[in-house]
Amino acid sequence: EEFIQFVEPSEEELLNRIEYDMDEQDVTWLNEINKTRVKNGFDIIEPLFFERIMDKLEKEWFELNKNLPPEKSEPQSEDSVCEICNNGECENSNAIVFCDGCNIAVHQDCYGVPFIPEGQWLCRKCMISPEEQVSCVLCPNKGGAFKQTDFNCWAHLTCSLWIPECSQANIVYMEPINNIEKIPRSRWSLLCYLCKKPTGACIQCSKKLCCTAFHVTCAKAAGLYLELIKNGGMDNIECIAYCDKHTPTVNKVSESVRKYKIKCSKELAMINKVKRKNLSNKIRNAYITNKLFKGKWVIPKAIVEKIIHASCDEHDEQQKRQFIIDVAKYWCLKRESRGGASLLKRLHIEPWSAYSTSYIENKEGNKKLKTLEVLATIRSNLEKMKTLIKMVVVRERRKLLLTKIQKRIIETIHFPISAFIRPIFYDIRRNDKDQVFWYPVNAEEVEDYYDIIKHPMSFDIIEKKIDTYQYKNVQEFKVNIFLKSLLI
């Protein structure tokens, strides 16, 4: 039986393969470009050529980033704290794990990771929606440890733990978040004193008679006192939160609260300014994004020139040069609209592989790649060995056949009697279908047989005498045959 086994392609094979697939936006853009080219007397561009250029732009940008060292960050194992409980302590059974997509740090128990998988680990948001930003239904802030709700929306797990009406259907995996519909209308109407945004559900200061309201994530960002007490596990927790006025003395955060309020005020003023201009929702979002986005996507000219020389012949370089430059600009805008996410799924799922070669050698993905390359080499060597073995078997069989023919020729020349009587003997023995006379009689079964039969004979004895060339003439062979009376 034959089995089909998938062998992961090597880096060289992936480099030459077109992995980019056009979407509806690409089709619309290419149709508009082709209309302009037809008016100017140029040939239309095929979709395959467009996909090849976009694919090369992605991979050239990826290769460029590989030569850049990773951003310096604090050691995760020492200084990182859990995104949910804000505690950096960990145990063997409750370690802090880091998402390979967004790099958030969470405790196993806090986020619901009963077993740490081998290789990469992705949080729920990076696993289900890696390219699109998600919004929390309980607060206005982006980023953090997300989980899905029972009606397929997203919410911060931190928000659901501090809001008393919310709960988790499965305490082991801490998902999905349910009972959001049980949050009273009064909680939705509370206004956060930090961000001043009338969205989400707020909690209030744990100090008695204090009604100061704030979002959980706003309090975390402002450095307010948040404590999650686990009374034996995540199924019995107690959440405490204080405003800046009632925060314990050892955790005074007045300055951080003031800075956070200033930051939120600037963002709120920016949003109100856009609203006053009566811009549409799409233009408003683009305006805010451009104001907050510090860098613009610009691809180096050397990469564009390299793609032009590799993709165009001498006779059509002038026609396609401007098109490739336009595709490069379109690629920059598309990457910017996706928040810098790669347009190739393989390169987006493995963001850690964009490090330089010296850093990749210590990464699990590179080890897996090397292992696959070694296995591919071993497989190739085994296939070659299998072919050689088959050839050796065929050769030896032919040598055996040739040897038998040579033996038959030599036997016919030097021992003609044996060569003559051998086929006759085989015809005679074939008549004994029950094999009565094939082997000598057993003396234990017939005790007085050899006392009566002075010259015992069997086909086995006759065959041995033929093989050892003991018969000098046909008469001797005839005597042995008739001695047994086998012809009757």
UniProtKB/TrEMBL annotation:
| The entry's keywords | Bromodomain, Metal-binding, Nucleus, Repeat, Zinc, Zinc-finger
Q: Which Pfam families match?
A: Bromodomain (PF00439), EPL1 (PF10513), PHD_2 (PF13831), zf-HC5HC2H_2 (PF13832)
- Write down the PROSITE patterns for this protein, in alphabetical order: BROMODOMAIN_2, EPHD, ZF_PHD_1, ZF_PHD_2
Question: Cross-referenced Gene3D superfamilies, in alphabetical order?
Answer: Bromodomain-like, Zinc/RING finger domain, C3HC4 (zinc finger)
User: Where is it localised?
Assistant: Nucleus
The UniProt entry, under InterPro entries, shows:
Bromodomain, Bromodomain-like_sf, Enhancer_polycomb-like_N, EPHD, Histone_Mod_Regulator, Zinc_finger_PHD-type_CS, Znf_FYVE_PHD, Znf_PHD
- Listed GO CC annotations: nucleus
Which GO biological-process labels does this protein carry?
chromatin organization; regulation of transcription by RNA polymerase II
All copies of domain Bromo, residue ranges? 429-483
Domain PHD-type stretches: 79-129, 133-247
Alphabetically, the GO molecular function entries are: zinc ion binding
Q: Which domain of life is it from?
A: Eukaryota
**Name this polypeptide is given:** Uncharacterized protein
Give the organism the record lists.
Neocallimastix californiae
